[in-house]
Structure formats: C-alpha cells, structure tokens
From TrEMBL:
Protein name, as recorded: TLDc domain-containing protein
Swiss-Prot/TrEMBL keywords: Signal
Low complexity composition-biased segments: 54-67
Region annotation Disordered: where it falls in the sequence: 48-80
Signal peptide bounds: 1-19
Record-annotated TLDc domain positions: 132-215
C-alpha cells in the first residue's frame, strides 16, 4: 500500500520538528522559513523606509523582507506574513473572505456537505432522470456530494462479473459513489463512499460515509442508515484486489476466488451498530448467516459530471480533514 509523502510531512511538522520551510507554491511568490518555539530562537524586526525585514536566528540566520506599498511597515508585514496554517488551509477551502463569520462561513453544509457526518433524518428529493432503481436510493443521499447530481450505473455484477478488476474498472477515478447489493436472505444493503475509489490500496477517510440496510428487503419503507464512527479514518479500504470494503469489517464483498459472492458485515468498529431489536451487529437479513451472507446482486453508482468539470477525490488522498 502506498504511504503518501504529504501525510508523513504533515505529521513530522506536528510532532515538533525544529524547523521547516513551507514550499513557495503554498505561500505564493514570497515565502518564509519558520521555526518551532524555542528559547534559542531570536526574532528581530528591522524597519526601513521602504520595506520591513524579519530576521530569525536559530542554528543560523534567516531574513525575510517585504516591500511596503503604503502605510506602516507593520501593516504590510502583517498582510504578507499571513499565518501559515491559514495559507495551508486556503489550498483546500479557498482564500479568506470578509464574511461576518470569517473562515467558518466558508465551510458550510451547502458548500462542503461531505465535511459533516451523514444526515439520518432528512431525505434527498428526487432528481429528474432517475431510473426506478435510482429513485429507491436517492433519499439516502441527503447532504452528500451526490444529492443533486444525476447518477450513472458503472458496475453491475450480473453484467460485469464478480471480479475485483471489473468493479474497479467501473468505479476508479469517478469520484464519490454508492454501492447497493442484495443478499440471498433478502436484505438490500450498501454503503456511500464520499472519497471514491482509485485502486491504490489506500485507507480512504470519510466522515460522511455511511452504510444502509433494508433488512427485510422492503424498500418502500425507510432504510436504516449507519454513520461512520471513530472519526473519518478508514471509511473505505480501497484494495485493488478486492471488491468494495467499508471499514475493515463494516461491510465488504471481497470477490476472492471461490467465494466471489461472499459478503461480510460486522458493525460497531467503524460504523454504527443497529438497534438490538434489529440484530445489532450486521446489516444482513435475519435469514442470512449472521455476519456472513451470499450476495445475489451488487451494483455501483457514481455522479455524472459535465465535460471539463472537476471530479472530486479522483486520485490519492495525501491529506484530508474529514
């Protein structure tokens, strides 16, 4: 499995490395070197008529000068030497605006629905063009990237076969997606993956990921949705040699030779448990074998994007907040 270098770099910074230099592309044309707080660090500000210089001394000396465009040197330096964390987050959420609520006004459910846990009460409205099967699953997509987007079927086990390669050929690099299956015992089950698949073997995070089940198979009723728990980590295990895997054990169809249709489900570690009255530990039907079930159908859907439109999360995820 690949270990993204950016994540390692971020952790090294957070674990107290003495100093690091933020890449120019992250800070713009002018960048600076930062040092962790230390008694050996001395910061000196020198005011000039046309520029402000900041010198930091710790194992050597570094100096950053900012040419003034009018006003005091302090004001100009303050504008140029923007907080590093703010600049880092601007790469993901855009530049700071003047909204009354400041930065928090930019991270809203409407703009970034998948930054929040799955919505369990409200349901999504129908979208024009939905097929009969899509109309069944559409209500589940409230507060997701796919809520208002048309869907397309990209994998059908009956048509494409019960093979990992066929599954990943359909879903990889297509953005957020939904898996829907049916067990021999009659349950209609599945899960929503907000970060999509790419087949790199990553543990892909997703705070808004969820599982769902109609344990008795009656899709005229409201499905039971089960949120991701324990934070965003390992919402999906994106193994190219396997079919869909939600968490390490929440719900998965491994598609391994000799047991291609074998589905497994164990709730409580990565996804919420069902109420005890409904079995608690598995999304499968009472007629299935506990946490193991034979799948008789499996499909995957992704969103439809216009030509030239950016597909979210269509590659490795070096860093994610949710």
């Amino acid at each position: 499995m690949r270990t993204p270098g950016t994540t390692a770099l971020l952790w090294s910074c957070l674990q107290g490395v003495n100093s690091f230099t933020v890449p120019p592309q992250a800070l713009g044309k002018t960048h600076r070197s930062l040092s962790a707080p230390s008694s050996a660090t001395v910061v000196t500000r020198v005011e000039h008529e046309d520029r402000t210089c900041r010198t930091s001394s710790s194992r050597g000396s570094r100096s950053t000068c900012v040419r003034a465009k009018g006003g005091t040197g302090e004001e100009e330096a303050g504008e140029e030497q923007q907080d590093v964390i703010e600049k880092f987050f601007s790469m993901f959420f855009g530049n700071k605006d003047d909204a009354p609520g400041g930065d928090l006004d930019r991270i809203t459910v409407k703009k970034f629905p998948d930054q929040y846990p799955a919505e369990k009460i409200l349901q999504a409205e129908p979208v024009k063009g939905d097929s009969k099967d899509m109309a069944v699953i559409r209500p589940l997509l409230k507060q997701t990237e796919l809520e208002f987007r048309k869907l397309k079927l990209v994998y059908d086990a009956k048509r494409n076969g019960w093979k990992p390669a066929a599954f990943h050929k359909g879903v990889d690099f297509k953005g957020p997606g939904l898996v829907v299956g049916k067990t021999k015992g009659g349950a209609v089950v599945g899960g929503y993956n907000p970060k999509g698949w790419v087949g790199y073997g990553e543990y892909r995070p997703g705070l808004s990921a969820f599982l769902f089940t109609w344990r008795d198979g009656d899709t005229n009723k409201r499905a039971m949705k089960l949120r991701k728990i324990g934070g965003a980590g390992l919402a999906v295990w994106d193994k190219p040699e396997c079919g869909p895997l939600f968490g390490s054990d929440g719900f998965g169809v491994g598609m391994q030779k000799g047991s291609e249709r074998m589905g497994r489900s164990k709730l409580g570690s990565y996804y919420e448990r069902l109420p005890a009255a409904y079995g608690g530990a598995s999304i499968f039907a009472p007629g299935d074998n506990g946490g193991i079930a034979e799948m008789v159908d499996l499909k995957a859907y992704v969103g439809v994007y216009e030509r030239g439109e950016k597909i979210p999360f269509d590659d490795a995820i070096p860093f994610s907040l949710s």
